Amino acid sequence: MKGEFVARAIGREAGPGTQSVERALSLLSEFTEAHPQRRVSELVEATGLGQSTVSRLVGALVALGFLAYDQRSGLYGIGPKVITLAGIGLNEMPVHQQSRQVAQNLAADLNLGANVAERRGAEMFYLCHFEGRAAGRSSTLVGRTGPLHSTAIGKALISEMPRDEWQELLGKDLARYTPHTVTDPAALAEMLKKVRERGYALELEELAFGRACLAAPIRDRTGAIVAALSVSGPLSAMDLPTREESLALQVIEQADQISSGLGYHASAAVG
Where's the HTH iclR-type domain (predicted)? Predict the structure, then answer.
């Protein structure tokens, strides 16, 4: 019955089914980290859809559980159905299956943040995120995206790509986030060469002030880099001048463990 109600509510507004779905998804897409809660009037302004259309679509999405309504504030937010679907999607990902416990243990052992991400187009996409006591973050990174050129995970992900491929992927203008961000392709190429030589990537205040990260690639059974594992935290907690070597050894070892779980064997990788 609920599904029939939703179909009628959306169908009245959009006509063709594809347009109905596009309009409903455009509303969901307006709920972001910057705007986790919205009013109908804000959705009307953001999407350009009519007031009545938005009201009916929002009502349908609430009925189905994709949005939730707070009566006290009058605001709409992401509903439990989205969280359920996200959990199902994550649990079906082989990298997430193999890395979740490894990352959780690493965060607990080092008291730092432990993260796993894969590449989605020109961005990295977080699959796992755990916090140690010294990590200094209060919000989850799972589901967030980030740049490839200014993060340790991103550099690990593209470290073995031919230069012409990653340059085409990233474009000519590399965004600057701090004065430490590398925006020169030639300098980035040198960084990626170092990643290949030593087996891990570094990030020192390139994306955010006061934070550092160290990441190592994760490979599938063919030997291709499909994800990366990192540890991160405030500069004082990471203490790279004295801890870089020990952290690198641990991160590489744990990344290799995940790779083994995905079927990778360094001596007999399937070409």
Answer: 18-80
Query: Over the stretch 10-68, which tens digit does the pLDDT of each residue have?
Result: 444 445 567 878 888 889 988 887 888 999 999 999 888 889 889 999 999 999 999 99
Task: Please tell me whether residues 169 and 220 are part of one structural domain.
Answer: yes
> How many domains does the chain divide into?
2
Q: What is the DSSP string of 147-212?
A: ESTTSHHHHHHHTTS-HHHHHHHH-S-PPPSSTT----HHHHHHHHHHHHHHS-EEEESSSSTTEE
Which two tokens mark 165?
């491929």
Instruction: Check whether residue 106 and residue 215 sit in a common domain.
Output: yes
Residue 6 placed within a domain: no
Q: Is 85 inside any structural domain?
A: no
Distances (CA, A) of 57 to 49, 200, 232: 10, 47, 41
This prediction's pTM = 0.79
Distance CA 153, CA 133 (A): 21
For residue 9, the Cα-to-chain-centroid distance in whole angstroms is 33
CB 248 within 8 A of CB 202: no
**Domain region containing 193:** 93-262
Q: For residue 152, how many other CB atoms are within 10 A of its CB?
A: 27
115 and 245 belong to one structural domain: yes
Q: Which of 53, 79, 105 is the last residue of a domain?
A: 79
